[in-house]
Design goal:
transmembrane, transmembrane helix, two-stranded antiparallel sheet, Stearoyl-CoA desaturase, mainly alpha
Length: 308
């Protein structure tokens, strides 16, 4: 590594994750995944009720939109402006997705865009070469491996605006609390709805653990799959692509090529039939007056980035 490259690497990294926090990362990768594996036999004739299904759908939708609309389109890319109540609500809703504290999340993602599919990108599948073995290693790294790295992206470089906001720093510090809430709330509701401890347990399993790991892997697939395969109708400087089968579960995030071609756009699915639930929610926020100065795509904007 040259002196310049070494200096750049140091500037990208803002420290290392403490051992206790690193153990927590492993726990919240492994435990929900084990629950997802166990879900297959559990759903076969017992252990899954319509209450579990309903709670899972509700909590998945709320937490996924918290990450996509809140952490991603609002906090990372400033695709719109939000009044203070909505701003704090989005920070909390994104934290409930259990994808890491807000300052870490935003810093990582802004760094990803600054170095997309190049050296310095925290989760590009192309960092190790283009041979089948290199791409297999790259897929693992982009999908999950990078999360297990103890190095933390420099927040002072990539998220100074959020560091300057005391309310956002508070939500960041409360990540453990919001993790507890996102796992306990389904159990409490399941127990109250069914008026049974068994209902609480199955709701915790499905709407808590299984929901978290499903959302994890959908989000991680945008990092991995959507930089390997798919359609590229827009001109981006990286290998981002649209992968339509992920569109519903990712709330529109898998229209990834447009996003990298125009990162501040509030809508990612801009072509006919491209469902983008996150953009629809932003539209609702705008209608209620909670969001404003929304950066909607325009024909002129799209014409500048469309591949000929």
């Amino acid at each position: 590594m040259t002196t310049t490259a070494a200096a750049e690497h140091v500037d990208l990294i803002g420290g290392r994750r403490p051992i206790a926090a690193q153990i927590g990362v492993y726990a919240f990768v492994i435990v929900p995944f084990v629950a997802l594996v166990a879900a297959v036999p559990a759903a076969w004739g017992w252990g899954l009720t319509w209450v579990d299904v309903g709670l899972t759908v509700v909590f998945y939708t709320v937490t996924c939109l918290g990450a996509t609309v809140g952490f991603h389109r609002y906090f990372t890319h400033r695709a719109f402006k939000a009044k203070r109540g909505l701003r704090i609500g989005l920070a909390i809703a994104g934290s409930l997705a259990v994808q890491g504290p807000i300052l870490h999340w935003v810093a990582d993602h802004r760094r990803h865009h600054a170095f997309a599919d190049q050296e310095g990108d925290p989760h590009s599948p192309w960092l190790f070469g283009t041979s089948p073995a290199a791409l297999a290693r790259g897929f693992w790294h982009a999908h999950l491996g990078w999360i297990l790295d103890r190095d933390l992206t420099n927040q002072h470089r990539f998220a100074p605006d959020l560091l300057a906001d005391p309310a956002i720093r508070r939500v960041h510090r409360q990540f453990g609390l919001w993790t507890l809430v996102t796992l306990a709330a389904p159990a409490v509701l399941g127990g109250l709805i069914t008026w049974s401890w068994w209902g609480a347990l199955t709701a915790f399993f499905w709407a808590g653990l299984v929901r978290v790991t499903l959302l994890h892997h959908v989000t991680w697939s945008v990092n991995s799959v959507c930089h390997l395969i798919g359609e590229r109708p827009f001109a981006a400087r990286d290998r981002s692509a649209n992968v339509w089968p992920l569109a519903l579960l990712s709330m529109g995030e898998s229209w990834h090529n447009l996003h990298h071609a125009d990162p501040t756009s509030a809508r990612h699915g801009v072509k006919r039939g491209q469902i983008d639930a996150s953009a629809r929610l932003i539209w609702i926020f705008e209608k209620f007056g909670w969001a404003y100065d929304v950066r909607w795509p325009t024909p002129e904007r799209l014409s500048r980035i469309t591949n000929v």
